[in-house]
Amino acid sequence: MSEEDKPGELTAFVIDENPLIVRPAPLEREWMHATHDRFAYRCLPLNIANAHGWELLAPSGFAAGWTGQPTIEAVVIQPDPGTAAPAISHFGHGILTFHLPALFRTEPGYDLMVQGPINRPKDGIYALSGVVETDWMPFSFTMNWVFTRPGVLLRFEKNEPICHIFPVKRGELERIQPRARPLSDDPVLKAEYEAWSASRNSFNSDLKTPGSAAQAKKWQKIYLHGATESGAVEAAEDHRTKLRLKPFKRVD
């Protein structure tokens, strides 16, 4: 097996006997279920993003609110009966802090993207993001959320996602050379775009016609199939419709 074919590793060294509840991020979202005919799931980029990493879950439920003041005491936390809340007020300024119960280790040259659960909006509070050099650091880090308005008592339920992680190759973005060019510079691409645009406009117009083929089809599936409108690309190489991430495996 070549070095390129070897599976990458992401290790969570659990601190003492703290509960680490982590899972591959699922595709499903409650708000997507609630859309008419579950149409939100027709967006493949949304589906791929939903499952792009692993979620850490709250080991217990609690309520939290913020008075609007900058002090540490201004964040109020109410654990569920018989439990200890997994979050504290540490920084003040309306920030809610989760101490994650593990030291994460990535392979050399890889950082860990640490952010809020993807496409899971939560009213009254916003998850902050960080990029952590987890290939060398021997200490833990926190997951932080900031209240977006005071005077609201909100809840984090037991097993609710509180953090989303995935490795990123260090320096990869800095090697990218962004450019902006007129579409006319690439006649083939321009023709493909114009064919798609015309097809899209026609399809959307036909959706309003009762009994039309567009209404029966419901949505165009060109991107879903990794194809182009002209048929020049029938199945793009490495096109994905699902992510299948492995769960964390306990190693003693």
Explain what this protein looks like in three dimensions.
The protein is an alpha+beta fold. It has 2 domains: 10-174, Deoxyuridine 5'-Triphosphate Nucleotidohydrolase, Chain A; 179-247, no CATH class. It contains 4 helices and 14 strands. It has helices at residues 30-33, 44-50, 187-206, 213-217, and strands at 10-14, 22-24, 54-57, 62-66, 75-79, 87-88, 95-99, 102-106, 110-115, 125-127, 130-132, 142-147, 154-156, 161-169. The protein has a 5-stranded antiparallel sheet, with no helix packed on it. Strands 6-7-12-10 form a 4-stranded antiparallel sheet, with no helix packed on it. A hairpin with an 8-residue loop joins strand 4 and strand 5. It is globular, with a radius of gyration of 23 Å. The model has no long low-confidence stretch (mean pLDDT 93).
Short description:
The chain is globular, with a radius of gyration of 23 Å. The chain has four helices and 14 strands.
For the record, the CATH class of the largest domain is Mainly Beta
How many helices does DSSP assign?
Answer: 4
Number of strands: 14
Helical content stands at 10-25%
Radius of gyration: 23 Å
| Number of domains as seen in the coordinates | 2
